[in-house]
Design a protein that fits this description.
Two copies of one chain form a homodimer. With 237 residues, chain A is mostly helical. Chain A has helices at 10-16, 21-32, 41-62, 69-76, 80-87, 90-108, 119-136, 138-146, 153-179, 188-204, 206-211, 216-231. Chain A binds a DNA duplex (18 and 18 nucleotides) through residues 37-40, 43, 68-70, 78-82, 84-85, 89-90.
DNA sequence: GTCTATATCTGGATAGAC
DNA sequence: GTCTATCCAGATATAGAC
């Protein structure tokens, strides 16, 4: 977990961050242990994986709120009773998924960007880290983006706080870069929004990019060009 | 309807395109006359307006599929029976809204961009037209963007066709501009996606922009800068 | 830990009086 | 054209056998 230094190399990232299927699912189980009735870890992790995969599939087709638990039961091959041994309630299922994502950011990139790097490198690390994580967990982030409506007040607030937190982080980086004379930015707010759009675009329109065989590394190249044109004082094209 | 020439002047656009509240609602009624049981036009237009406004409000809060028609009845002050004199079914309500948007594009900007303008002006007209229309109908477009999942197969297909159609139009403009030596673009597909993201961003994140008192004209200025940096051969900053 | 059967409720939709 | 009352399908959630 100490090797990936913000390089634009997806294979390297995948080998250093805990983003394999089994790592993800077991991290998910760890975070929500207390809400899962089933005791045996191995069984629980496996079934949670099936449940979540099916949830993403069905939500993509009809939306989460139109997905009935009978649908889910059929898709997973589990009975209604079984499902409830894992999820508590339909609403809680959505919440667990939402709560998991900030947790994954912490695991994968937060420690990477806390060092005292040059400010432009720091921005690169943030951008690349975001794209890499969302590439590995694309269905998760897509789900979270589309299905924010169905959350309890508390979790909605948490989602909003995360949003604003990431905006604040970007703005801080831009401020610092400007003070150091590395960045220019006529409008900081717009620069932040632009970067966020580019980051979100990757998982929201993932299907279109795959159709055109665009890799996440190429996508990073592209958006770094756009961002640099906005921010860099010495933008040598 | 023949005066607005792609200028970045919102007031001018509003005075030439049929985008006032009453014009919009009566265009909506015209398009869907046949599905509305109530005969008297004046009554129908007014009530449709209340219904749609309430639908947007409630969908924003809980999502369309979690909005019950009883909720809607309460919010509009109409009874269940009355509602059904206007909407046919819940699903049809969503469909009518979706089908209305391409119709509005036709009314507001299609004839503007069919002329034989210089290619860079044509692109400007497309960009400005989109932002202006989506500014006037922001809740409509936001609704359509978030609630695509709940449509019948046919209307889903229609939505997808519209998407691809607008991409094709942009790509065509870029191609032509490149042949004329006005545009450069290392990757046409990415240029199209970038433009589309910027256009969508305006109505998807409308609230954030309003908070920062960003007008649609300023937004256009900003995204035209970004687009020009990508496309223009002679980009004199 | 998993299943089937069932209790309970909510939501879409309609009939028919006014 | 609008309202109230009602029907019924389908959803969440649970109880209890295995």
């Amino acid at each position: 977990m100490t090797q990936w230094q913000g390089e634009n190399n997806f294979a390297l990232f995948k080998s250093t961050a805990p983003v394999s299927d089994s790592q993800v699912c077991s991290a998910f189980y760890q975070q929500h242990k207390n809400k899962v009735a089933v005791q045996k870890e191995k069984i629980a992790v496996g079934k949670l994986k099936t449940i979540i995969t099916a949830t993403f599939k069905l939500s993509n087709k009809k939306g989460f709120s139109l997905m009935s638990l009978r649908d889910l039961s059929q898709e997973t091959g589990m009975s209604m009773g079984s499902l409830y041994a894992y999820i508590g309630s339909k609403g809680q299922l959505a919440e667990m998924i939402h709560q998991f994502l900030p947790h994954m950011f912490d695991l994968c990139i937060v420690e990477q960007i806390q060092g005292s790097d040059a400010i432009d490198l720091k921005l690169k690390k943030i951008v690349r880290g975001h794209i890499f994580v969302t590439e590995c967990l694309q269905p998760w982030f897509f789900f979270a983006f589309m299905e924010t409506k169905h959350l309890s007040k508390n979790v909605k607030q948490l989602a909003k706080d995360n949003e604003l937190g990431s905006e604040a982080m970007l703005e801080e980086v831009i401020n610092e870069g400007e003070q150091q004379g590395i960045f220019k930015a006529s409008n900081h707010f717009m620069a932040v929004m632009l970067i966020k759009s580019l980051l979100q675009g990757w998982y929201v329109k993932h299907g279109r990019y795959k159709q055109h065989k665009m890799s996440c590394e190429n996508y990073i190249d592209f958006i770094e060009t756009v961002i640099n044109q906005q921010l860099l004082v010495n933008d040598s094209i």
